[in-house]
Amino acid sequence: MSGQTLERESWGGRFGAIMAMSGMCVGLGAVWRFPYLVGEYGGGAFLFAFLVCMAICVVPLAFVEAALGKGIGKGVMDTYSIITKNKKAGNIIGGLFAAVYASMNFFFIPVMATTIYFLYVSISSMWDDMPAEQIYDYSASQETIMLVLVILLTFFIGFVLFKGIGSGIEKVSKVMVPAIIVIFAIMIVFCLFSIPDIVKGYNFYLNPDLSQLTNVHLWVAAMGQACFSVGIGPGCVLVYGSHLKPTEDVTTSITTVCLMDISISVLAGLAIIPACVGMGLEPESGAKLIFMVIPAVLSQIPLGNVIGVLVFLAVFFAGITSAFAQMEVAVTSYSDALKMSRKKMTVIWTLITLAFSVPCVFNDSLTQFWSDLAGNYGFTITAGIGAVAFCYFYGVKKIREEFMNPSSSVHLGAWFDKVVKFVAAPIMILIVLNSLFPVL
Predict the structure, then answer these.
(1) Are residues 240 and 325 in contact, defined by beta-carbon separation less than 8 angstroms?
(2) pLDDT at position 394, please?
């Protein structure tokens, strides 16, 4: 037991912790899902709704979960053992939750492989020889290439986690997360001067059609995107928070992380949506926006292959840092609860991930199965239960007084407890229920 305690690491510094936690949040949801939702729900109106939802729901819940993680200093299994006051129940519930979150990599890594393939597509300007809208289907048919990429990606994720918290996840995130911001900034400037009708696109993105704000579906989509973009509930914020130093200011750090998530989401949308609108393409193209519409844009602009490399490099950086978090939740939780070396647990979860992600290369139905089971139902259910367990069973007041305020430069009062218990958490629970049993 003492060996396990000594082996458990903390983030090396505040900047590294913020970059790692930002990488956890800024996944495909920020650079892929957010832009197409902006396009689907009328541009600026969705952006406005997203910002409101982040402020009233996500930030308070993220405070609670990260502070609880810092205070307990353990993974999901040990946390639920404390909450339920039953070691066996905690191991079962937390172990299942951690495994569900890790299983998101089973379908996520093949998507990352596609992103890497599109780096080659951009370098080679493949759209010169093949209609841009056909390239995605062609990439899916390259099974041998995809297999190799999935294997390499899985071992890369495992290697980073094997190196540890500071020397692995933190070190890589300190490079990749700032690079995402720089890349999108370059793209925005380039599109500004190279796409004639780009102003039309900016008007669509930045000028909200206030009539859209009466659309209930827009608010449901915005709240869902806000809640799940940061990943509150299932345990990733808890686990990354558990690696914070005891003296870390959770309130300031999590506020910064949420602002990073918002900034990268907004920048991704600003780099992609106005370009689509300016080129006369449909920004409401849904999930196919990145892999089918963006190549069509790239094929029509100067230096499209260079911009394409930047686009897909940014998407890859965003996705892979989230993939670290998805495996890390299981590695930390199981190694803590079972008193096993995190290096051994990293090897185990790397092999498990490899065993389940490789078949997805050859079977689209398996990819869809894991996407539904882990990405839709699993994530949603664990997020809802997590919100209830952390806020009501363990208690917001206890978390605020014992784990949040003592090391915070801004002390939150009893009003914060009411905001979480009667506004933020209920909204989160309603979003979860609506995701499982759609009414709106």
Answers:
(1) yes
(2) 96
Beta carbons of 310 and 183 less than 8 angstroms apart: yes
How far is it, in rounded angstroms, from Cα 229 to Cα 27? 8
CA distance 432 to 420: 16
Terminal Cα-to-Cα distance of the chain (whole angstroms): 49
Give the number of other Cβ atoms within 10 Å of residue 73's Cβ: 18
Do residues 397 and 427 touch, judged by C-beta distance below 8 A? no
Helix (H, G, I), strand (E, B) or coil at 196: coil
For the chain, give me the number of helices (H) and strands (E)? Answer: 24, 0
d(CA 113, CA 103): 16
Please list the rounded mean pLDDT of every run of 10 residues in the chain (440 residues): 54 92 83 77 84 93 96 96 96 95 94 93 91 85 95 98 95 95 90 84 80 86 84 90 93 93 88 81 63 81 88 92 95 95 96 97 91 85 92 96 93 96 92 81
Compute CA 299 distance to the chain's CA centroid, rounded to the nearest angstrom. 29
Residues whose CB is less than 8 angstroms from the CB of residue 334 and which lie 6 or more positions away in sequence, other chains included: 75, 77, 95, 98, 340, 345, 348, 349
Residue from 279, 243, 278 nearest 74 by CA: 243
